[in-house]
Write a structure and sequence with these properties.
alpha+beta; 5-stranded antiparallel beta sheet; 4 helices
Length: 224
């Protein structure tokens, strides 16, 4: 897995926060943006996974900063045209980071298409993103291990599953179970402190190789 810091071009100020290069690694080990996430796996008539659906709710502080950057008519809120502008910018920039999504089936990396639909909305003072990622090939969810990560391994953006009904499986054979594996940051630091420092301090155009251990995984198990 290749990681790049999300120094997003979402706007001139938002996400382009300057992180002092001389600060110690611990200074980078905290997020600047928070996302509450729901995830849904869609299965076809054969019981294979075909699509991943995301609903993301951004924190109020980050959301309010978007008003400063994108409220072109100065009415103190984001109308449909302004939300569409945010959608265009975020779709392009998040696409460079795989939409914070990784999919594995056993040891195999599972690819997916660009999101369709990709919707940006506003609710109760928070930016909402809704997207559907169609897998390039249907995937059997068997004992080999089908799993999905929704995570920023640099922890610049903290993606956390909601406490209520965070994960859903729909379609045929939807009686699946799941468990969540989160990174053991202490163990990762003990194993390679420099790797963590590189992840947390990488610039927007810097690439850092990191393993799947740095991601939060949702592991699925479905009856045959």
């Amino acid at each position: 897995m290749t990681v790049r810091k999300l120094g997003l071009a979402w706007s001139g100020a938002v996400f382009a926060a300057c992180i002092l290069p001389l600060a110690p690694p611990a200074a980078f080990a905290h997020p600047h943006v928070w996302i509450e996430a729901n995830l849904e796996i869609v299965r076809n008539e054969a019981g294979e996974a075909t699509q991943i659906r995301h609903v993301w709710r951004f924190d109020e502080l980050f959301s309010s900063s978007l008003i400063l950057d994108f409220d072109e008519n100065g009415n103190g809120e984001l109308d449909r045209a302004e939300l569409d502008t945010i959608g265009k910018e975020t779709r392009q920039s998040l696409g460079e980071y795989n939409f914070y999504t990784e999919v594995r089936n056993g040891e195999a990396v599972v690819d997916f298409y660009e999101p369709d639909p990709y919707l940006v909305d506003w609710e109760n003072g928070r930016l909402i993103m809704i997207m559907a990622l169609e897998l390039t090939a249907p995937q059997k969810i068997g004992p080999q291990g089908f799993k999905v990560a929704v995570s920023d391994p640099t922890y610049y953006v903290a993606v956390e599953l909601t406490s209520e009904d965070p994960v859903k499986v729909s379609g045929k054979g939807a009686d699946c179970t799941y468990d969540i594996t989160v990174p053991d940051w202490d163990a990762l630091y003990a194993r390679d402190a420099q790797k963590l420092a590189d992840l947390f301090s990488a610039g927007a155009d810097e690439k850092v190789e990191a393993s799947d251990d740095y991601l939060t995984w949702i592991n699925f198990s479905c009856p045959s």
